[in-house]
């Protein structure tokens, strides 16, 4: 722990991003053992991921955002959290509207975003959908580690940031499987399905470095950066994860999965932070 406390915060954010990416890679390896996965299990995993992200958005991002604003003596301590939250949602909505992508439960004819002159394959569209999803997760990890620069880096604060990375990593495991299995089911080889599933989270270490560097360069934006990441994550949850887990007749198990993910992330954040 002493070694971690002495390291550059951007480096720690990068390592945490590599960890969350590694969890996606781990999840994608399931394609080497199974060609298909039950829709019931997939919906449960998507619900679990949604629960983790909702809990992380509040305890790891929004609550600290308000606390930092109060510490700065801001009379409107709620403003950075509210403004950043809405801005984060609009940011992901803009990417959603521009980048062509396809949700897991949709037909190719239901592709969203601007269409390039040459139509993209279903595999590429699914890959882009999950990649968009992973952008706010990388940012969340980065700004949380960057927030450690606010005052003295303590063991408890570092454990809180590590807890968030672990939580996001846990929900990345089913996400890796949720992409690689459908690609395999579409007829792609196991190796190609694994590759696309694994590479969908390469944006996470990149986003983590960007988030941490931004906070370190401009510490006053910290409350806004934290809530921005929260808003981006909540948009993904409500626009993608919850609908996809609730439209296949598995509403009860998907909801229980969400509640389990929420509780696990909440306990980790409170216990470690």
Mean of pLDDT: 89
Q: What's the assembly state of these chains?
A: single chain
What share of the residues does DSSP label as strand, in percent?
A: under 5%
Low-confidence stretches: none
What structural keywords apply?
single chain, 273 residues, mainly alpha, 10 helices, 75% helix, globular
Write up this protein.
The protein has 273 residues and is mainly alpha-helical. It has one domain. Helix content is 75%, strand content 0%. Helix 4 (78-98) crosses helix 9 (222-246). It is globular. The two termini are 15 Å apart.
Q: Topology of this protein?
A:
Blueprint: H1 2-5, H2 9-28, H3 39-71, H4 78-98, H5 122-146, H6 155-185, H7 190-199, H8 203-217, H9 222-246, H10 251-272
